[in-house]
Task: structure prediction
Amino acid sequence: MTSPLLKAGEFARLCGSTKETLRHYHGIGLLTPAETAPNGYKLYGPAQVADFMLIDALRRAGRSLVEIRDYLAAPDAEALAAVLEDCLTRLDQERDAIARTRRALSGTLARLRLLDAAQSGPQVTVDQCPAERFILTPIKPPAGAGADQSGAALSYEWGLALIATLRDHIEHCRGLGQETEFQSTYRIGREAFLAGDYFADFSICNPAPAGVRTPRLHVKPAGAYLKLLRRLSLDPEASESGVEDLIFEAYDDLKRHAADGGYRVAGDAYETELSIYTGAFQGTLAAQVAVLVEPEHDQSA
Result:
């Protein structure tokens, strides 16, 4: 017995869709009505529900209507398997991208919450921290820059060098499928930190999950870290040398706290920005600086 044909509205309701969608599919040659009645009504056969469901499943899996139309022009089991495998690959890539974005947003949220702790003034702690992996890009000094510039206000050339490094760092991270965080993390090499020549070994960092391979991979070792959490005024008049010296003063203070607490600097230092641009510029910068330390009495004579 011949199956009854369904009007467009009936067929759309059966498929959980709309007549507008059916008209669009018909217009691009994706799903053609089985017949056209003398009065102009478009009629669909019940068996076409399977076609609609396949189209809908492939569309939800990320395939374009053009791609689906091309497949349906010559469908077979092998071609469908290839399409479904590609859909799964795309979904896995989207899942990984969402996970990366979630890690970046979670890191930003954690920093914002830590920012509240800086409201009451400088805080110094010693915490045992696990190892962390970073993608690290050194900030190369501009041509002709001397080491004595590290404690002075940034020159125009230094500003250009920082911007160029940041752009290169972002492009490198994205090339690895990693998103950069809203706030930056910086690494200062141990020798440069101790010498106060901070830009001599200064790098920008981005968290790197396990499995990422790059020559820029840097592992921050586990251990005891002396941490200084503080807010800094961005008023250039607050320091004779400018805003940059105010930031570097946090590194100087961290070294003093290490000496006063009976610690020796045993590794690199790291700065974690806590402030975030919310749509309006703020008058202060909050940051946490940390350095790997060991008790002085553990040091051999």
Summary: Residues 146-153, 239-243, 277-281 have pLDDT under 50 and may be disordered. The longest strand covers residues 284-295.
